[in-house]
Batch of 2 targets.
Target 1
Amino acid sequence: MATPEEHAAHDAAAEQKIISDVKQYGFHVAHIKGDGYSPGFSYTIGLFKTYGYPELICFGLQQDLLHSVLWSGKELLDKQSVLDQSRGYPDFIGDYEVRFLTVDQAWYRYYFGYGMWFNQGTSFPALQIVWPDKQAYFPWEAGFNPNWKFGQPLLDRSLDFKFREERDVAVFTTRQVLEGLPILRVVHAANGDWEFLCDTTYAVADLQVVGLAEIVQRDPSVNELFQLNYGWHAERESVGGGWQQEELSSQAEA
């Protein structure tokens, strides 16, 4: 794990690169690698300041293709500064069209970290470029490939349920949580299982299985852990307190 000094040095280098690219090219493209659970993505920094365009973001493709898609988006904005979100735009990914969605600003802090630094807050527009499956269905359309459903979160919606699973996926909790005790520990096991625990009991007799949506409805603050990677856990002292995230040891996983 990187030290605070290493984090600071990384941030300083990244910020200098952003400033340099915006000065030279008009904008910078930031690439964020996937971690095995959350998909990788890329986004622009500087389109708004340089041209008055929305910043652009796209998920789930290989880095070179993401870079190409964002450049194509910038070139499209050169031709028409206002895009029609009710139609598709061709020639972004082979013969496939893409669509554009307005990103809700509530998502910015999860996906536009350096963009918020560069723009000094969230007062900039952003559009998501969304790609279809091989049958040309988009994620919100019936028939879209279910295996690709969580490869690109849709950033104009779903703020009440951010997790990358179906709402009815079975998760573990305890009888005590269902009776009202707060959720203080969340585990995302290496096999994908979720556990939402009160941290007062680990007795097998107390375990219960419910749908993930029921947990989120009981305590919407667990939504903040929607990016918790496989093999990690998070703890807090009380509801409303900050989550401390840490990778599970092999002994804890066992």
Target 2
Amino acid sequence: MRSLRDKAHQWWYFLLHPDIPPDNNLAERTLRLAVTKRKVSGGSRSMERFQDTANLLTVVQTCRRQGRSVIEFFEQAIKAIVNPKVQAPSLIL
């Protein structure tokens, strides 16, 4: 098992690379929506339901990070399901 000391050369990596944040606040904020939903709903009763919820929250968070409307994304996705001639939206830009 590696100790924290073995990773000492990585502790100050962000000082040499200003594009790397010194904390993981972005990751914490990204998880907040899922944690709050789990607390309010009491969690999922099945693995399938858990995966469905995780997929929806991934779409919501990705749209937010990209500055896109979540409602418009889902509207486009539903239109694509109903009409095969409509192009499905993508989260990959």
